[in-house]
Amino acid sequence: EGLEAALIIGIVLVSLGRSGRSHLVRFVWIGVGLAVALSFAAGMALELWKVNEEAFEGVLLLVSAVFVVTMIGWMTRAARHLKKDIEARVETYGQRAGLGAGLGLGAFVFLMVLREGAELAACAIS
């Protein structure tokens, strides 16, 4: 999961560098930082939450399995076009003026990294 998030971040950063929009890089790192913090907080909350461990682990295993199966299905469909899709979104958000470009990129990276972080937290707890 960390490798997938790093791949997404790398594609976004390279795309920003190539298009001459390196001033937007800080928004990418803010989105990454927020997503990592929220994923870590979710993992800690799940760890501190006192429930029947066997039942909770069973539910988490099922949720993790759903995440993995959907990720495999998504990657099967999107792998060929993933880089182009990410670069197209970066280009779209980068063309916006001022703060809108940064917020769009930050939100995009936040959601992509949060998805991977949630999968990682669910797998780590189970």
Choose one word for the global shape.
elongated
Low-confidence stretches: none
- Provide the gyration radius in Å: 16 Å
- Total of DSSP H or I helical runs spanning 4+ residues: 5
Classification by helices and strands:
mainly alpha
According to DSSP, the number of beta strands is: 0
The succession of helices and strands, N to C, reads: HHHHH
How far apart, in Å, are the first and last alpha carbons? 15 Å
Mind summarizing the main beta sheet? none
- Beta-strand content: under 5%
Q: Mean of residue pLDDT? A: 78
The helix content is over 70%
Keywords:
126 residues; mainly alpha; 0% strand; single chain
In a nutshell, what does this entry contain?
This protein is mainly alpha-helical and about 130 residues long. It has helices spanning about 1-20, 25-50, 55-80, 80-95, 100-125.
Report on the structure:
This protein is mainly α and 126 residues long. 85% of the residues lie in helices and 0% in strands. The protein contains 5 helices and no strands. The protein is elongated, with a radius of gyration of 16 Å. It starts with a helix and ends with a helix.
